[in-house]
Amino acid sequence: MLRLEHITAGYNKNPVIKDIDIEFERGKITALIGPNGSGKSTLLKAAVDLCEIYEGTVYLNGKDRSRLGNKEFAKHVSYLPQSHSTGAIAVERMVLHGRFPYLSYPRRYGKKDYEYCCHAMEKAGISELKGKKLEELSGGQKQKVYIAMALAGEAQVFLFDEPTTYLDVGYQLELLDIMVQLREQGKTVIVVLHDINYAMGIADRLAVMEQGKLLLADTPVNVYESGVISRVFQVETKILTDTEGKKHFYFEGIKKG
Ligand SMILES: Nc1ncnc2c1ncn2[C@@H]1O[C@H](COP(=O)(O)OP(=O)(O)OP(=O)(O)O)[C@@H](O)[C@H]1O
C-alpha cells in the first residue's frame, strides 16, 4: 500500500531520518514510537513530501509518489500533522477542506461533500461546533476539528502525528476506537503515539525509532521481548497481565547504571 524504500530525509540539507525501509499494509495499524527528536514526525512528513528527501523512493500502491500529482496522492493519503495553524475560519469550512482533493473544476462543494463532512463531524464529536470559528475553540476541540478534516476524505491511508495531544482521556479512547474502525474498513493507519500502552493496545505492529533510524518493526509482544523499549527510553519496564488477560506496560522507573 504505502512503502518507504531506503528513505533518507530531513531539512535544510541535513538528513534527520536515515535509510528508512518500511512497508505499511492495508488493514493494519502501525504505531511509531521512539524518544523525542528520534524522527517519527519526519518519517510521516517524508511520506507526504513535506520535508526534503535526499535518497530513496515513496511508493503508493506500487507507484512512485513523485510521479503522482499532489492532488492524486492527497485523495489516497490523509495526514494529520502534530501542530496546526488556527484562524478565523469556521469549523464546518475547515472540515470541508478535507474534501478538497476530490473537487473538480469549478471547485464547489456539492451534496456528497457536505454529507462526508457532516459524518466526519459526528464521528469526531464536533457537530455542535460547526458554526464556531476555529480561534474560539479549546486545544482539544481544535484537535477534533483536524481529526474530522482527516476523516472527511476518502483516503485509504491515514497518517496521524500524536493525535491524542490535547484530548481528554474519554476522547483519547474514542480516537483509538476510530483508528480500529478504520482498520476494520481495510484502511492503513500509521500513528505516532507517545503512550506505549495505547500503542500496544491497538497496533498490529510497533515501529521503534532512535536517532533517525528505524530499529525494529514487529508485533507489540516481540518488540517488548526484544528489550528495545527499555533501552531506547532508558526505563525499567514490566508487562502486567490484567484479569481479562490483556497485557499492559508498567514503567517501574528510570534505568539505573
Ligand atoms: N522543520 C524543521 N527544520 C529543521 N529541523 C527540524 C525540523 N523539524 C524537525 N527537525 C529536527 O529533526 C529531528 C527529528 O524531529 P522529529 O520532529 O521528526 O522527531 P520526533 O521523533 O517526531 O519528536 P517528538 O517526539 O519530540 O515529537 C529533531 O532534531 C528536530 O530538531
Structural class: alpha/beta
Ligand catalogue:
adenosine-5'-triphosphate
In the CATH hierarchy, what is the class?
Alpha Beta
Average pLDDT value?
Answer: 92
The percentage of residues in β strands lies in: 25-35%
CATH superfamily: P-loop containing nucleotide triphosphate hydrolases
Give a verbal description of the structure:
The chain has 257 residues and is an alpha/beta fold. It has one domain: Rossmann fold (3-Layer(aba) Sandwich), CATH 3.40.50.300. The chain is built from nine helices and twelve strands. The strands form three sheets. A six-stranded mixed β-sheet has the order 6-7-8-3-9-10, with helices on both faces. Helix 4 crosses helix 5. It is globular. The model has no long low-confidence stretch (mean pLDDT 92). It binds adenosine-5'-triphosphate. The site of adenosine-5'-triphosphate has 11 residues, from helix 1. Keywords: ATP-binding, Cell membrane, Ion transport, Iron, Iron transport, Membrane, Nucleotide-binding, Transport. It is a peripheral membrane protein. It is found in: Cell membrane. Its main location: membrane.
